[in-house]
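chain below, 280 aa
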Amino acid sequence: MRDILFHFDSYPDPTPVEAIDQAVEFAALLGAEITALAVQASFKPPGNWLAERLINLSGLCAHEEEKSLANCKTAIAAFSERLAKANVAGKVLLTKSEPALMGDQVSIYARTRDLCLVPVVDSLDGQRSVAEAVLFGSGRPVLLYRPGAADLPTAALETVVLAWDGSRCAARAMADALPILKKARQVRVLTVIKEKAEAKPGLGADVIRHLGLYGINAVADEVDIGSQKIGAALSDFAKAHHSKLLIMGGYGRSKVREFILGGATQHMLHEPDVAIMLSH
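prediction:
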């Protein structure tokens, strides 16, 4: 992977320095150039004369836009400083979007990158919807992480877990992740048996053969999770094997512009406790 996109959050709070540090160090680990995309939130006040008279609605919207722009500038300064210290190639793009359309905006830029990094800080920052938009709208993989809870691997890629159920999405995730898998010390190919009819014992054997042709050291694992939810089971397996990165296919079926997420995808987007790379 030579070309990484990193999305800055600017509203209501800026992306924290810890997330910026990890993104730059991850790019250094992969030997990639990293482009930070700062998106200023744009607010269009409705034409309501009463609200304008009572609370100066247009003035409030302008104030929030300036706050978002200030957050963008704060994050850009921290990013530029970190790039120089780490001697990593990178640049910054600044654009503007309504909050509801921010994910679509990031998705457009992600289409010409190998990977998009989306840091999540709390449940109200809107980053999950951005990650979902990139996953289903860009045609490229997205990597979601939470500084302090699901950190990006930075010093080295030790153990990487590849979730494998034989599906098209899983195949896409494996292909997208090959540059990362090549750098890992070990790859564990995990099949959750009985969770899907096609997820049968021995399914990972051909994956081991394929990865071996790329010089990738991989082993096959199979677990029967019983009544445990699939997303939690994948996270638990990754943590038990001291893996800081889980790679899997992102499942969803379209209903107009909305996607009804699969159980594992929903869990990973909304409750990530390990850095997760998703491909669709």
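The longest strand covers residues 33-41. Residues 255-259 have pLDDT under 50 and may be disordered.
thats it, cya
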